[in-house]
Amino acid sequence: LQELDRAQSDETIAELFLSCPIPAWLLGDLRKTLKHINVPLCVRSSSLLEDGHARPYAGLYKTYMIPNNQDEFQDRFAQLQDAIRLVWASTWFEAPLAFSKSLHSHQEHDSMAVVIQEVVGRQYGDYFYPAVSGVAQSHNFYPIEPMQSEDGIVHVALGLGKTVVEGEKSVRFSPKYPKHILQFATVDDMLSNGQRYFYCLDMTRTGGTLGGGGNENLAKLEVSECLDSPAVMSLASSYYPQEERIRDGFNPHGVPILTFASILKYKSISLPESLAAVLTLAYKGIGCPAEIEFAVDLDPDPEKSILYILQMRPMVKSGDSYHVSISDEERGKSFCHSHQVLGHGVFDSIHDIIIVKPADFDPAKTVEIAAEINGLNKTLLQAGLPYLLVGPGRWGSADRWLGIPVQWQDISGVRGFIELRPEGFKADPSQGTHFFQNITSLGIPYITMTENGDHWDYDFLLKQEIIAETTYLQHIRMQHTLMIKIDGAQPECVMYEELPRLDLPIIKDSSF
Questions:
Q1: Among candidate residues 137, 138, 149, 139, the one with its CA nearest the CA of residue 341
Q2: Cα–Cα distance between 460 and 467 in angstroms, integer?
Q3: Does the bond joining 175 to the residue before it have cis omega, within 30 degrees of 0?
Q4: pTM assigned to the model
């Protein structure tokens, strides 16, 4: 540590730690333990900051997986030592140091243990992986009817949990309503949102040294190339192009689509119920919403399948702490205050607002309005400016008489929605499919204005700078920073002006 320069690269720091000796007493304990273990191992961190209640350092320290199958014991022992050294080294890598700096935290106060776990799963050919892995959270910030926030949310994938924790394609469901899969509403949804790749431990990579990346022993395989895997056969449904149809159950003559139907629809194992019970216990145990990492080893005999709880921590969302506080002062100065909200967090990077002009809105012209939004979206997207979109009825509705029928390419730069309820234009809260799949996966807040004590001040926006105006739209730029605070646990949202804004690009009139 005396030689450590924080300006050095992760690779240099890793090399420095790899050259450091491990205490003799620890080496003796490790040697005795390893002689009794000949299965793949996961070497990971467990620190006070990593599992803290305020702002956990989740996912910032490295995890290393080793096959532990070399013929020579000394080779297995050497790789285990390197993995331990590199986990310790990762506390000094760029990502956790930058996170500490952003929190004005002193990382030197952290204390960390290194945990050695057996990798859950079994070997399929040259690869080792669990059939199912995922993350379960006891609070859902984007509940779509009939779901409730307190029902929680689960993300599952085939193979190692790297797919889920790094935000790649996975299946999302509520433990209470496992058959209600929003992302699989249509055949096209299933084809575009299904998991195509998965991560596994390559059991043939027995040589070489580990590095700072942590992925040296992992492989990324395509699901369609692993049709002989019992895990794929158990979890996949089959797509038949000639019929444009997907049937539950695996068929080698169809295209495999990972739907997890055997578990979620036909309850081959009681995974949703088990996760719901674990989330309830976790909530009671730590006194706040919890997030757990888990894996499932599927056995041909379902009764012998095992659910493993790998890790538990206080729940976080997109790096923000779970708790968002809204004061009476903020409610009083807000121009938007709503109690019907999807999302959670503090958003302060938006200065531009696109609003459908209330006086010029015509339900018969919603297609034309969508086209105008597309034009402004292109302009703002090119300038790198996120924006808030405000208008009547359901955003993204397939029924043009219930709202503006925008598709994602029309609003790809949006970072927040407000759904208004004008007189004589009533619609239930938006429950779209493709549309809400993008909103929930990107963490975009969606606010609905109701008549139950909500507050919306359009006159306040008219006092701001109007950048552009079309037949049906106004492009408004806030004179100061737009602060959006959403407490998804209540739920409640406030919007108000905050600090002076920075200089923003000059927007020329759009042509569309």
A1: 149
A2: 16
A3: no
A4: 0.71
Angstrom distance (rounded) from CA 296 to CA 130: 6
Lowest mean pLDDT segment, chosen from 105-109, 307-311, 370-374: 105-109
- CB burial of residue 77 (10 Å; 0-12, 13-18, 19+): middle
Residue with tokens 């003796």: 28
Give residue 429's pLDDT band: very low, low, confident or very high (50, 70, 90). very low
Sign of the CA dihedral 245, 251, 252, 255? positive
Query: How would you write 11-30 as a 3-class SS string?
Result: HHHHHHHHCCCCCHHHHHHH
Of 183, 185, 260, 156, the C-alpha closest to 439 is: 183
Q: Which residue do the tokens 């949310």 mark?
A: 153
Residue-wise over 343-366: b if at least 16 C-beta within 10 A, else e? bbbebeebbbbbbbeeeebebebb
Q: Which residue has tokens 């646990």?
A: 489
Interhelix angle 73-89/24-34, rounded to 10 degrees, is 130
- 317 phi/psi in degrees, rounded to 5: -135, 115
